[in-house]
Design goal:
about 210 residues, mainly alpha, three-stranded antiparallel β-sheet, 7 helices, elongated
C-alpha cells in the first residue's frame, strides 16, 4: 500500500474523520491533501484531491491582526516571484532554441536581451515582497529559513546581474549564448531552492503541500 493510499484510508476511517461539526467552525481542512475550504462545503468532496466528504475535519486558523491578514491575502509575494522565475527559465531556454533554429535566432536573441536587462529588478521585487511577507506572517524575518532565503536571494540577484550585464554590454548573441545558458541554469536552481524553502514556510517541512 502506497503512502497516499495509507493517508486516504486513515482519512476516511470512522476513527479519523469527525462527522459532527464544531459549533462556530468556519473552515475545514482535508486530511489527505491539506486543502482548506469554507465549512459550508463539508458535505462535498475535496475539490483538490477528490476524496469524499469524510476527509474533512474542522480547522481553526491562528488569529492574526486584520490589517496583516488583508495584506497577506493579497498574495503579493507568490505573484511577484513568478516574474523573475519565468525570465530566469527563459534566459537559458530561449538561447538554446535560438541556437537550434538559426532562422529565428535574431528575434529570440533580441527578445531575451530585453527581458534579461530587467531581471535584477524583478529579483529585487520578489525578494522584498518575500521579506515583507515573512515579517507580516511571523513578525520577524531573521529566523533560520527566512535568513537562508535572504542569502540565496542575494546569490540569485548576483547571477541575474551577470545576465543583465551580458545583455546590456553586448546583447545576447550566438557568441555569448552558452554563457547566458549556464548562468540561467544555475540561477534557476537557486530559484527552485527558494521556492521549495518558501513551501516549507507555508506548510511546514512535512506538511501536506511539501511531503508529496
Amino acid at each position: 500500500m502506497t503512502a497516499e493510499q495509507k493517508a486516504a484510508t486513515a482519512a476516511t476511517s470512522s476513527t479519523a474523520a469527525k462527522s459532527t461539526p464544531e459549533q462556530g467552525t468556519e473552515w475545514i481542512i482535508c486530511r489527505v491533501c491539506g486543502y482548506i475550504e469554507d465549512a459550508k462545503y463539508r458535505d462535498q468532496p475535496c475539490p483538490a484531491c477528490g476524496f469524499p466528504p469524510t476527509v474533512w475535519m474542522d480547522y481553526k486558523p491562528r488569529r492574526i491582526d486584520p490589517k496583516r491578514e488583508k495584506l497577506l491575502d493579497l498574495h503579493l509575494h507568490p505573484i511577484a516571484v513568478h516574474f523573475p522565475i519565468v525570465v530566469t527559465v527563459a534566459s537559458f531556454l530561449v538561447p538554446i532554441i535560438a541556437l537550434l533554429i538559426p532562422s529565428i535566432a535574431n528575434i529570440l536573441f533580441s527578445a531575451i536581451t530585453l527581458v534579461a536587462m530587467i531581471l535584477p529588478l524583478l529579483v529585487i521585487i520578489g525578494g522584498i515582497s518575500g521579506y515583507i511577507g515573512s515579517k507580516l506572517r511571523y513578525k520577524k524575518g531573521t529566523s533560520k529559513i527566512p535568513k537562508a532565503k535572504i542569502y540565496l536571494t542575494v546569490i540569485y540577484f548576483i547571477l541575474s546581474c551577470a545576465q543583465a550585464y551580458i545583455a546590456i554590454a553586448n546583447g545576447v548573441n550566438a557568441d555569448n549564448a552558452w554563457i547566458m545558458i549556464i548562468l540561467g541554469i544555475v540561477a534557476s536552481v537557486f530559484a527552485a531552492k527558494l521556492g521549495k524553502m518558501g513551501s516549507y514556510l507555508f506548510a511546514g517541512r512535512f506538511g501536506p503541500y511539501t511531503a508529496g
